[in-house]
Amino acid sequence: MANVEQIAEVRRPELIGALVVQLAARSANEVVVADLAKELMAGHALINAYLDVLATLYLVRLLPAWTTSLTNRSKRRPVAQLIDTALAAHLVGQRAEDLSQIESPWFGPLLESYAVGEIAKQAGWSEQPITLSHYRDRDQRIRLGDRLAAVPVSALWAG
Hints:
By secondary structure, the protein is mainly α. The chain has one domain (4-156). The chain contains eight helices and three strands, in the order ααβααβαβααα. It has a three-stranded antiparallel beta sheet with strand order 1-3-2. Helix 2 crosses helix 6 (85-91) and helix 3 (33-40) crosses helix 4 (44-56). It starts with a helix and ends in a 36-residue tail after the last helix. The model is unreliable at 155-159 (pLDDT under 50).
């Protein structure tokens, strides 16, 4: 997570704006820093620093990958979601009428981001600590333990 000094040292504010647009276009997808760096013509370290800034400012949620192994978790990429899904829809040029069509390519990713945001709000008042993470398996299977709950949002739109 970024600290106040990092936020104060944003030297390329136009890059932050472009990064937000790129994250909106990649809603509910894994963050591949190399792809973002190439698209934005910036270094990996700068993209990572600005991702931390955006997360600190509560503009972006970086949802870590779920795994049963702490060492495995560090090898998997987080999923990025703009906290404000209406802003994300605006940045990708989608209006309410566009998103009302279930065949819209933006419907699913924005729905997933919205659902995670709503779950995060509810987790805030839980008496038990709740950790949010994402899980993707090429076979779309989810294995659960005694104290684990999964909400298969993508099943609502993946068809």
